[in-house]
Amino acid sequence: MNKKYMSKIQWIIDDTSENKGISISFILAIFPLAFITDSYLFAVGNMEQNKGTENIKNIYLYVLFFLIVGLMFVLSYILISTIKLKAPRYSLLFILGIKKKDFWKILYKDYFMTLLRTGIKSAAVIHFLSMCMTDFIWNRNEPFLLIDFLLYYFMGIGIVCVMLVFLIFTVIAIAFYYSLGKEMIVFWEGLNRDIVFKYDNKFLYYLKPILGAFVEMLVIVFCLDYRTIYYAAVLQIVSFYLMSTSVGCLRWIAEYKRKKDYRSIISSYAVMYQYKFNSKLIIVIYLLNFIVAFVVGGFILSDLSDKSQKDYQEKYPFEYIVYGKNINFTQKFYPFFEGETEEGKEVAIFSLSSYENITKRKETLSEYEIIYISQHSPEDFRPLEGKQDLKVFFDSKEINYIIKDSRWETIFGENISPELEYILIVNDNEFEINASNKINLWFGNKIDFVIEKGNHVWNRTEAIEQEKESNRHVMILVYVTGLFLLLESQGIILIKLIVNHSAITKKYKLIYTLGVSRKNKKKYFFEEIRKMAFYPAVSGLIRGILLLGIIYFYQEGLSICAFANCLALCGIILLIQYGSYYCIALLMQRLYKCDLGMG
Amino acid sequence: MELYTISALSKYYERWNMRLRKKDEIHVIKNLNLTISDNEFVCIIGKSGAGKTTLLKMLGGIEKPSTGSILYTNMELYKCPEVKMEEYRRKEIGFIFQDYKLLDEMTIQENILIPQILDGAKRETAESKVEEMTKQLDIYCKKNFYPYELSGGEKQRAAICRALINDPKVILADEPTGNLDSFNTELILNLLIQIKAELKKTIILVTHDKDICKYADRVMEMETGRIKEIHV
User: Fold this and answer.
1) Which in A140, A143, A267, A514 has the greatest CB count within 10 A?
2) Mean pLDDT of chain A
3) Given CB atoms, is A265 within the 8 Å cutoff of chain B?
């Protein structure tokens, strides 16, 4: 086909309002990933190497992985919606007699290139903004080099481009696969055919709410026991899905509202219609809100429960811990040697007399017997129940010890050093025989000797400062991720409305013809969006907070203050979402001003 | 008594002419003068693009004319406040469309109720009106059905019920039989005649089917935005 004609056809099937909407959806969807990628790159390049920052980097990696999976899902949703949106125009091309070969060229230019261009433009704007935001939020101390800036900038855009190319090709490949052996006109017409609203058959009409109610009861039962609470967390998603897609349930709610005020049928039936057709969207909104409440709320509770100075005193009993080889302490010190367990954990092996001296407790140990102590986080401690013996490797030797006892105990402090996270206590004779490669350790509240190079010094004040800094990082990260997850849900709502705009337009034109005022029409439109998206959001948030509250109650007991903080957070999230639904309604009115008759 | 007095009515759209690089005006209605009396059945016929539907929309208060005036009894449409126009669309006009425009998610009864809800009527009054109207139009037994469960003729009768529920003076019908077979076409047209005779309504019907003209009191033929002929 002539290139000139090709570009003319492409121009005919292009729609500016659609492209604008798709760009905005892209921006909303890509922003979270861009921000977290930039923050991670910042963390890698600027944070000092220590255990706290290692943890933060790990958290970043988890969040990044989670966001990449989420973004893949959201982008595929946008891309599939876009191909459905363009389907009527593609079927028209076939009706008008386009050759298959030419059509795939058109599809490549119109779909692949347009979307890729839109994606790159959005990513370019977003990455610039997110890099400025990263700089502002994380208080960069050193000046940022232009070369670094450009490197990070193009790396960020590159990630989005690779994902987009992969996803667009996947969507085209799926479309190509499904179109094989089918009439192309029928295939493309079928992609965006107006679906006729039909109720579930009688079996499903009653089965879904009954099953939903049953699963809901199971959720309540599972909530009664701490060990099964995570099953409740999964099952409540199933019950919400069953209830929200059950026409029976929706119809009962609409009928109930109608009994109270028959005028509500316009909005309540519209919501029922939306729930029926947008069940996937509803469950995604619900899930995103549930995750935000559960994760962000969880971090708030853990942050609140770990604040007081007394807690730090318990966590780190000594101001200084010093250890190293080939040093002579003038003060009293305790020797230990390093080993490795069969599970690959590093262990510090102390003698029984040292242990008794430190803890002022009497214990007895026979030959080849050990006490296994963990100083790692108490919540991660798993007693070696049922395990009779432990293989320990040191100085190319291998000894099979019998475990006398295993416990979590703070001797020097929690997580102060990888070498001291796990401690083994052995019989004094055993220690003397095997401790050829001794390390000396000293601890106390005042340090009055010179520390030589090569020795490890741990200081509580510095550790607490670092921990507070890490917590601040993690909290900001959690808040920002939560907020951005909500943005992604707004992106999905927007693209859904753009895809459905012809049905929406038809309905509002009719209502206008029947005599509703412009103002009320806008009100109905906003109400419809709000009700469609707001109820699942509220349900998700409330369920998330309730489950979190129950878990917190089992772990720490009832804390009104902590719970009130979480509720306040939910309130803020709802307020943000309420505002964003209003913005989406305004944006839709702006994009389809003429169609919606709202100009 | 004259219900509508239309004087020098025109409607044009502006379009950017890429070749001449200037704005073009596309005239849909050109300097139209017309009067429509109370309790009259007016049929507007013409080819596609003659401006029939645009005229109907302007009479219905949903498309503003570019120039000229439409006087409805003593009220000049589009010059009065927005609230009056809404009231006019709600109370004085009943619309019937070719594709019925019934909302899929609502039952027939609920679809018919919409104008009453928008008018702020009480529930009992509204529901009794629906019952009475559906009985008259012989779709009472289908009132709890959904649009997808009804035939084309039944859907159009439901749409007529919705148009009549607020007791408007004028019924504006845009190709109401365009999607129907000959049996249902006759049924719907007889129904409109009956409505005109018994309920004393003014009916303005737009069609391209010349066979429908025999039902009308007056037939106006439109061509390129002008009235070509009027047959009584």
Assistant:
1) A514
2) 77
3) yes
**What was the pLDDT predicted at B161?**
92
Do A165 and A241 lie in one domain? The reply is no
What is the CA B209 to chain-centroid distance, rounded?
16
What share of chain A has pLDDT > 90, as a percent?
1
Average pLDDT over residues B131-135: 90
Strand ranges (E), B18-135: 22-37, 41-46, 67-72, 75-76, 93-96
Nearest residue, CB atoms, A517 vs list B82, B93, B162? B82
| Residues A64 and A163 grouped into a single domain | yes
Q: Whats the size of chain B, residue-wise? A: 232
Distance (Å, rounded) from C-alpha A337 to C-alpha A215? 55
Cβ contact B139:A231 at 8 Å: no
Does the pLDDT of residue A50 top 60, yes or no?
no
- The verdict on A42 and A171 lying in the same domain is yes
> B113, A265: Cβ pair inside 8 Å?
yes
| Closest chain A residue to the Cα of B121, Cα to Cα | A263
Residue A3 lies in a domain: yes
What is the SS3 assignment for A249-294?
HHHHHHHHHHHHCHHHHHHHHHHHHHHHHCHHHHHHHHHHHHHHHH
pTM recorded for the entire structure: 0.67
Sequence-separated (6 or more) residues with CB below 8 Å from residue A132: none
Which domains does chain B carry?
Answer: 40-64+90-231 (3.40.50.300)
Q: Give the C-alpha separation, B41 to B217, whole Å.
A: 5
How large is the ipTM? 0.75
Q: Which residue of B has its CA nearest to A260?
A: B123
Domain that holds residue A119: 1-193
3-state DSSP assignment of residue B167:
coil
Name the one residue in this structure whose structure tokens are 């318990």.
Answer: A314
Q: How many domains does chain A have?
A: 3
Task: Tell me the chain A residues in contact with residue B83 when contact means C-beta distances shorter than 8 Å.
Answer: 517
The answer to whether residue B119 neighbours chain A at the CB level (below 8 Å) is: yes
What are the C-alpha distances in Å from A179 to residues A109, A172, A186, B109?
Answer: 19, 10, 9, 41
Examine the domain organization and report whether A146 and A219 are in the same domain.
Answer: no
- Give residue-wise pLDDT tens across range B162-173: 999 989 999 999
Question: Residue length, chain A?
Answer: 599
In chain A, residues with a C-beta closer than 8 Å to the C-beta of B110 are: 265, 269
DSSP H stretches of helix in A397-517: 428-434, 460-499, 501-513
